[in-house]
Each structure stands twice: as C-alpha cells, then as structure tokens.
Give the backbone structure.
Amino acid sequence: MKANGTQKGKRIAGFRHVRTVQDIREFELAANGLRVLHMRIPGSGTVTANIVYLVGSRHEERGRTGLAHMFEHMLFKTLHDGTGRPVKESGFKRLEDAGAISNATTWLDRTNYFFTIPRAYLKDAFDYEASRMRNLLFDNKEFLPERANVVSEYEMHAGIPLDALETAMAQAAYVSHGYGHDTIGHKPDIQHMTLDSLKDFYDTYYWPNNAVLTVVGDIEETEALRVVQASFGSLPRSPKPVPEIDIIEPAQEGERRVEIARKNPINIYAVGYKAPRTRHFDWAVMQIIAAYLSEGPQSRLDDTLVDTHKASSADCALYPTYDEGLFMIVAQITAGSSHEEVSRIIDEEIARLAAKPIDKKRLETLKTMILADELYSRDGTYAVSRELTECIAVGDWTRFYTLADDIRRVSVADVQKTARQYFQKNRRTVGLFVGQTKKT
Amino acid sequence: MKDIRIPTVEHGNKNDVIHITPQTSGIVRFKATFPVSDIKDRMLAPLYADLIQRGTASHSRKEFAAAVEALGARLDVTSDRVGITIDGCALAGTFPRLLDLVKEMLERPAFNKKEMDQVHKQYAQYLHDEADNARTQAYLGFTQALFAKNHPYYRPSADTRRTFLRSVTRKSYLDFHKKLFAVHGIVSTSGTEAHRQSTAKLFSTFGKTKDTTLLAPASAAPHATETTYRTVHDKANIELYIGNVLPLTLSDSSFLPFNFGLQVLGKWGGFSGRLMSTVREKEGLTYTIYARTEGITKDRLGMWYIFTFFTPKDLDKGLASTKREIARIAQKGVTPKELTTFKELLKNQFILAHESDAKTLALYHDALCAGMTPAEVAAQYDAMQTLTQKEVNAALRQHLDPTRLVISGAGPINPNRKTLSK
C-alpha cells in the first residue's frame, strides 16, 4: 500500500489529496469535508456515481428502527428548492428518463445511492445527489404511501423462511448493539414512523462530512473533481458533529436459540457465530473458513450434508461489517433428515476445524479461488463501486486492496487458531425454522 | 450508438460464434448455448446440467471440481428456457487448461449411477420445496394457462416432473447428451483473438448444421380472460402474473412498437414505467410492478406479462389499478412526451448494457440465442429512434387487450374462494 501526496490531484483547487492506493485516489472537498474516491476505467463511456452515507441500521435507536432504510425510499421523493418550495420535476426523473441504472441500498453500517450513466449525465447525477442531501421535502402526502410500500417490502421478506429466521437470530444474538434488528426495521416501528422522526434522522446524518462519494468509470480525474466541486461545493458541513455510535455488546454467557414454526414445507437449521470486524486480519481467515466449509463439491459441508442427502444445501455467509457481525452457517434440511442430525454434523465439522489443521494444498486452492473470484467480480464500473461501498462502510476503503494481501498471508495455523477463537458456544446463536412436513 | 463497438458474428456450419474485446484484460469469459426444444428434454435439462458436472471417465466429481478450483476458474452448466448453457471464466494464463477440462467434460462425461441418484434425490427435494415459493407457483400457473402441454413454454407441474423423474435412466442422459451436442450452438467469447479461436475450435467438435425443426415456431393464441390461483400458506403477499400470449416474433413489424409501448407501461426496473409511478408511487399498493415480454425469438412467439404482488387486503384495489392502467394505455396509447422520453431512455440503456464485459457478453449472446445478430440488435435500437406515436399506439391497440387477461396468483388465498378476490 503506497500513499502519494504529490499527484496532480493535489493541485485541484478546493480539494485536499488524502492518499492514493493503487488505482484509487482519495480527496476531500475542503469546503465541507465530503470525501471523494476516483478510479478510472476507460473504454465504456459510462460512469457509476455512488454516494455512501455512513449511517445504517446500526445507528438506529430502540423503537425507531427502519429509519435508515426509509430514506432509501424517501430520497427519491419530492425535493425543495432550498427555500421550502417543492421542485416539480426532480432530477431523479430526468436521470431515470435518460435510462440511468439507479437504486439505493441500506445495510447495517451504511446507506448508498448510485447512478450508472453515460458519462455526459454525470453533472445531472451529482446535482441531484447534492440537492437531495439537504433539500428533501418532508410531506405526509408522499411519506404515508411510501410507508405502506415499505410495509409491503417487510411482508415480502417476512414471508421468506430464511429471511425470517435470520432476522430472529440477529435479535437473539445482539442484546444492545444495532446489529440486533433487521435493516428494514421492526414492523410496528415502520407502521408508527413519523415525519418528525425522519426529519430528525436526516438532520443528524445527511451531511457531506458524513458521506463518501465514489466516481468510477470512463472519466478523467480532473473532470470528475470539477463536477464534484460544482455540484457539492456550496453545501455546508453539519452544524454539529455527526454522532458516533459505539455500542459495546455485553458478553454472551452461553448459546442462544430461536425457533420459528410455520405451515411451510421448509425446514432450516442455522447457526451464527460472532465474527471479527472486517478490518481485522481474522476476517480474511474467516473468508477462507467459509469457502472451506461450503464452497463447491470439495467442501466439508457438501461432503457431509449434501452428498449424504441430509440437506439440500449448506452455505456459509460472512457479511462485511464495521463491528462484530455474524458468521452464518445455513442448511436446508431434507425430508428424510432432522434439525438434530444436521446440527450434530455441523458441530462436528466446526470442532474438527479447531482440532486439526486443514490440508495445506487445500488452503492454497481456496486462496486461488477467492482471489480469482475477487478479480472476476470487479467487472465494470458498478461492480467496483458496489465493492468499494462495503469497504467504506467497514471503516477503511483500502480494504478493497488489503483484503487480498491478508488472504495471501493466511496460514494453516491461522485457520486453526481463528476457528478455536471464534467458534465457541458463548459466541453462537442457533436458529431453527420448523416447517410442517407434508406431502406435496 | 456510433461510439459502441458492435461485435461481429461468425456463422459457422457447426456453431455461430460472437467475439467481444473486453475492457478488462487478463480475464477470459465464454458462454456456449445449445438449444433444447422437446418437452421431455426440457424436463431433463436441469438434471442433465447438474449431472454433466459430476465427473468424467477419468476424474470423479470431486477430482474434476478440484481441477477447476486449482485454476481459480469458474465453470458452470445451467438450463433455461432456451436450452443448456456452459459458462466459463478464467485468467488468461489458465484459460487453455480450463478449455481442456471443458473438452473432457463434454467428450467423456461419466453419468455415474451414484451421482445420478444423488442428482435425482436433490431434484425431488427441490420439487418438494418449490411448493413454498409463491412466485414460482404463480408463474407455473401462468404458463399452464397460456400454453398447451406440448408447447415449449408450458412449465409442467411438480407432479408431472416428479413422475418424469422416476422414468429417467442413465440411458436418458446418454441420449440427451448425444442429441444436445449434435445441435447448432451459439458460442460467445470475451478475450483475445487467440481465445476466440481456441474456444470456437473446442465447440466445433460439437454442433452441426442448423436443424430448423428444433426451434420451429410453436403455435399459441391469446386467451380469453381467465383467473387461476394457488394457495401458499404463511405468506403475506399474493404474487401475480397478469398478461397473455403475444402472437408476434422478433421479425414482425409490430413487435418493436409493441415492446416500446409495453416499456412505457411498465419498464422492468426503476420507476419510469406508468405502473410503478401510479400503482406503487401514487397509490402505495405494492413494492414492485413491472411489465415485459418473454420467449419471443425470430421464429417463435411468446408472452407478455405484468409481474407484481399485493397483500390480500389490497388485492382488489391493486388489480383494479393495474387493469385501469392496461386499459388506459391500450385505448389512449403513449403520449408524444413519453415517446420522446423512452427513445432517449432506451438509447442510453443500450450504451449502459456495455458497462461491463459480462453484461456485454450476455447482451449479444442472449440476442443471438433468440436469432438476432449483434448488428441486428444495434439496428433495432436505431429503429426505435424512428418509431412514431401512431405505430406504437396501433401495436398496443392490437396486442394489449384489456378484455382478455390471464391472471395467475399464488399466496395466502383462501382455497375455498371462487376467484382470487372472493
């Protein structure tokens, strides 16, 4: 990792060059603290403009869950002109009508809004982003139907067995930390959300100094920064410091369990272990462990659960997180098996990881797979922006590059040590989805 | 469109080959599709796609997978409405070794009895679990209402597929394999010229002169109004497909204006379509409501549909709003402003389809599977720019009939109801 403070970008008026790491250069807009990451990918004539707000469901208070996600919806609504008068034709409509691929997503640690556009529309996209950062019109006429849409979205997820189980498991795993509620929020909190609570949240978190803008694609750095300056340069910094949420989850004293019973034909066994932060080296080791356990026909869980027809699928999931998230193992149980049997087999595999070193050759293959997958997945401006978003959210965008370095460094001993450290009963939550077994 | 490099296609006597120069050097991708048409073959296709990856005459399933993994490559075989697709991706340095493995997989598949039993067990479980997927249930109901049982787009019930599964033997796979790779295929590559040549050479071992009977037009006509529903417990939403047979092929002059008008009604993704801006944005009745055509090729007609979902409480209102929007656009057509807006929108979407190598490859590969060359794809986008309001509205009036809608729903519907809403 090499920082370079003497690049041409440093001379661009109004920006401070923060650092350069490989193909990405970071700047800060002096006027308001907005950070900008630029990466040039020539050839396609397209750009992905993506703004990441450092606020996600982790930042929400009890009884006010779902606020971060509600903005993912509300920021597409009517804006005002700076004096409170509604703007009839929003910039979003113009961009949508121009064919932009756009959306927003909310996750535990961040919310992001992006446009993939032909280069000529970059100024339109930035003008709109700058405008909706501070000029959202709070109006019940728009909010109440959108709140109903979010309830519809909630219902859509709640009807999916695995989504429902993961939500219940997170609630059990975290007593105090914001990772304990789903990003969409609790249904009653959504139903009782008010404009006042929205406005309060907006005025707390939607400021340039709480955002990182990524500009990835077929555009020169100087041109990109010029447009950023023109669109965002006049926005003020937040009048008060943006609060930092630093909740220390109380120590867990034993295994926690949850169960959901429904009239579905589906049966699921899941177990989640509190995992290291993504910035930590051990997170790279956990990625290797996830692949070792569930990636492809060579994996342990494929061998012991899928090949033996005890589960129709067995997967591990490890999401990037700012604080300690959950390392999930999920198995969909077949009609001829049981939660108990699948649980026993998974426990044996976990115990084996801690007891015995994994094969060195296998470790090297897993590294090759993970590193190659990383390259394949960075295909195009949107894919790069999506990955950068997660790295920004975990607190260090250079993880975009350093994670690969960590993966290369992982040893057989690291795998064993990490398994021993994190796969303990007092770090885990077990979830059962119990369906009605019926012949269909 | 002048800035976009349109790939060329080589119409071989074995396969058609498209080549794309990638933005990202050092990564090579390919796709090869071989069409499947017969109804039984279509039921076998997902099983075959799984089994062919489970070992060769000289490597067990795990050994074969280990060989691919050691290269850091991706290799996948899938089945869809068109047929069987082999998808690969590797770093330039290891790509020749990936092709060697593909060759081994295609020339000497094991179709091992133990692996076959495993695939069958897993598929039986999949059919069991499918009963819980309301969206799939609604889709099955929709295609079953639209098409006759022998039509390639008819999706058989789980019971039919379960019965079929019991009849499948090792010979079924051997016969299917022989038949599949005697079919003229579509091969696309993203890499260097050398990569194109080596990939084309590999697949030229298979494939033959185009068999026109294989993708022969299958007949179907729009249906009278019909509502079908299935109960899926413990779901909050009723998933819906609303549409009909579209008696047009890509060669029909009405297809382009019809498709243009359908995008104005419910462009897939985003908020530009009328359905999203009214049924969702103004009325708050659903989270998602989009419209599209499906299965239309140069030789074959397909269907158009709207996909959405409503809670049981909002079902009547939601259906009424959706029907109102269908009737409005069928009777009054698109406005001059919508015509202008969507021309710009679709032009830019074509540019954005080239944003990544995988997307570019998929765009042209899928189009050629439907019978359109890259040049024809580009020409179609150019032709959209010259469409008139009169042409679009005439096509909508002719083919979007609000009095003939097939509605298929699945979700928490009272099984004793006579219709979806009562």
Q: What stands out?
A: Chain B has a mean pLDDT of 91. The radius of gyration of chain B is 23 Å.
